[in-house]
Amino acid sequence: MSDTLSTEHLLGIRELAPEDIDLIFRTADGFKEVLGRPIKKVPSLRDITIANLFFENSTRTRISFELAEKRLSADVINFSSSSSSVKKGETLVDTVNNILAMKVDMVVMRHPDPGAAVFLSKHVNARIINAGDGTHEHPTQGLLDVYSIRERLGRVKNVKVAIVGDILHSRVALSNIHCLRKLGAEVMLCGPPTLIPPHAAELGVKVEHDLDKALAWCDVANMLRIQMERQDHSGPTFFPSLREYSMRYGLDLQRYERLGKELVIMHPGPINRGVEITSEVADSGASIILDQVENGVAIRMAVLYLLAGRIPMDAGADRTRV
Ligand code: CP
User: Fold this and answer.
1) Does residue 223 sit in helix, strand or coil?
2) The domain over range 139-293 is classified in CATH as 3.40.50.1370
3) At 197, is the pLDDT very low, low, confident or very high (cuts 50, 70, 90)?
4) Backbone φ/ψ region at 57: left (φ over 0), alpha (ψ -120 to 50), beta
5) Which residue's CA is the nearest one to ligand 1's atom 3?
6) Of the residues 83, 90, 138, 246, which has the maximum number of CB atoms within 10 A of its CB?
C-alpha cells in the first residue's frame, strides 16, 4: 500500500486512482481520531503557508478548510474576491501570483469557472486544491460524501447510491459519481430530464426520472440543491415551479415512510428546506448531513497533509509528520 498520492494537486476526482482515494480515507481515519482528542491540533504543517482563495460564496467548504489548516498548524491567508482588487479588474493569474510572491506553498481555490483550478495549476508554482470550479468538480465534497457512506455502512463497494435533483449544474454530482464508481458503488441519477446532462449514461450510471422508483432501488439518497443562482434570475427555467419540483422530486416524511425500508439520507448543503428535502427528513435519524460536515474537516486535513508531502522541502526540513 502506497503512502504517497499519485498527483501533485487535487483538481478533480477523475484524476485520482482508487488507491489515492483509499489513502486519503485511511489518512482521514487517523485525523478523525486526532479531532476526538481534547487537544485537536498537530504540528504536521508547521511552516507551510496556505492561501484560501474564494471567488464564489461558501460557508461549509471555506470554514472546513480553514479549520483543517489550523488543526494542522499551517499559516493561513483568507482571500475573498468581493473585498479584493479583482473588483478593480485584476486577473486570476495576477491575483494569485501576487499572493504567491508572499511565499505561499498551497492554494485552495473556489471559482465560478469550470477548469479554473486546472488553469491555475499550469501557471503558478504551488500545490492547488480545487474547492469547487463552476459546474465541473468539487473533489473534497465528493471525498467526504463517500467517506461518510463508508463510515455509516462499513463499505462502499456494491452500495446503491441515488443522486437526486439538479445534476446538470452540480459539481458535487460529478465528483460523487467519479468517487463512487472508482470504489465499486452503483450510481443512479434521478431528476427531471431537463436537469440530467445528456451524456450521463457515458459516466456508467443509471438514469431514472421517477423519484419513488429511485428511492426503492437505492441504499443511499444524496439529495442535491436546486441551484437557482446558475439558472435564469427571473425564476426556474428547467421546471415549471419550485412547488411542482418539490412534489415530484422532494423527499418528505410521507414519501420516506411509504418506502418501508431504511435509507441513508445525505445532502451536501446548503439545503433549500421544503424544496428538495423537508426539515423532518433532513433532521431525522436517517440523515447523515451533519456527519458529512464533521467528516469534511478530517478529509481536508488528509488531503492537505498528503499534498504537503509532495512540496519540495528545504534540506533537513520535516514538516509533514503527524
Ligand atoms: N457543500 C458546499 O460546498 O457548501 P458551501 O458552498 O457552503 O461551501
Assistant:
1) strand
2) yes
3) very high
4) beta
5) 61
6) 138
